[in-house]
Each structure stands twice: as C-alpha cells, then as structure tokens.
Write a structure and sequence with these properties.
heterodimer; A: 7 strands; 28% helix; elongated; B: mainly alpha; Arp2/3 complex 21 kDa subunit ARPC3
Amino acid sequence: MKKSDVILIITILIISSLIMLIWFKKKEGNKAIVYYDSKAILQLDLKQNGIYEVEGAKGKVKIEVNSHGVRVVAENSPYHICSRQGYIKKSYETIVCLPNKIVIKIANEEIDTVVR
Amino acid sequence: MELRKFTRLSMLLALSVVLNIIESFLPIFNGMIPGFKLGLANIIILLTLYIYGFKDAIYLSVSRVFLVGILRTGVFSITFLFSLSGAIFSLLVMTLVKKTNFFSLIGVSIIGSLCHSVGQILVAILFTGNGAIYYLPYIMLLSVPTGILTGLISKELVNQFKNIL
C-alpha cells in the first residue's frame, strides 16, 4: 500500500463524515412527504396516527404513521426493502421503494422553508 | 483474438458471474442500505484491467452485467441499469486513475468501489429524484473497507497470475 492510498482513505472518511454531519443533524421532523415519480402526492402529519394507502407503480403501498414515526407496512416489490427498513422519524431520513417509484421523506417545516 | 486469451477471458467472465451470485447470498447489511454489496466481482475486473488492459476489461465488465441481468434481475430492469452504469463508470475512472500511477492497486480498488456506487446513485437520481443522494455518505464510507478487501485480494491474484495468464 502506498502513502497516497492512505491519504485517499483518510480523505474519503473525512469527506463522508463531514457530509453526514451537515446533512443529518438529527432533528425530529414534523411531517412526512410521500413522492410518486418524484412528484409530491401526499403530506402526512407525524402527530396524527393513521394508515394511508397510495398507488405505486406496482400496486398499493400501505403507509403507517404512529408514535414511532412513519413506515411502509405492505407493498408489492421483489425484495421488500422498504417495508423491512422499519420506522423513520428524523429530518431527512427517507424510505425509497424503487419498484413502486415511491419515496417517503421526513421534513421539518422550518428547515424546509430555509432549504427552498 | 488469440484463442488462449479468449479462453482465459471466458473463464474470468464465468468467475465474475459466479462471484456476483455468491455475494448476493451474503446477508451483509441486507436491507439496511439498499444496493450495498461487497463487490467481489470487482476482483476479476481489476485482475483483467491489470493483466490485459482496459479494452478487455470493459468487454468483460459489460458482458458480466448482461449475464447477471439474464440470470437474476432481468435485462433492462432498473436494477440492471444500476449495475450497468455503476460497472462502466467505475471501470472508466479506475482506468484513468491507474494511468496516473499515483495510487497502488488498493487505491484504484477503493476508487473503483466508490465510483460503482456513485454511478448507481446518479442513475437512481434520474429515476427517483434527489432522495437517493442521501445514501451517498453511507456508501462512501462503506466503499473504503470493501475497496480495501477487493484490492488486497486482487493484488495477491495479480502477483500470482502475472506470469501464468
């Protein structure tokens, strides 16, 4: 291993942890936005429990909101990655369900207005 | 193409497909970070790149993606496009980095595994919007250990096979 390799490894580690620090200042969001095909189709209030259904590319996607956060309960996809992921609650956490073209993102109203 | 070389490249292609299938059985981080895997097939691509050069490596890499696509995910599905973009992007960058001679094989391997994920994320952004970009730091972080692992194995293999292949 050359010296430049070590420098490379350290740079990658520093850059990725910096990005994480900037992006993921963990703060609980207060709403969840559901996107289909990158268009926002539904906004959920995290304080209101309930079960919602949206139409994905491969059928219905069932989304549950309760005190733990938001999760996908049932969906039709080959590997069920998004329903296995479990709850998300903090700002900028996402659930991505590629086969259904559904993305669920947690947002925080104040942060959101600043970003936009 | 010389028959001997042709046979050996086919053998390497078969090996890379098998490695790709084997690593899909390994449950490492399965489900936690979608799309994360060890990248064992990159060992073969690196070996080909170092022994035979870029042209043969890109043939091998693209045929591998097509074969795995036919065998597992289905050709022209979204996963297939991810693999294809990742494979081509990582090979291009690895070739460029190798030409500069600035990094050893291990550094090239780390950059390759990083660019594989970056290529996939770029396509994911095309399909699903900016949501996929939030995987970037995780994937950057994870590409370091996997890159070192595949780099160490390929380094040993290149040393062993330099005279035989």
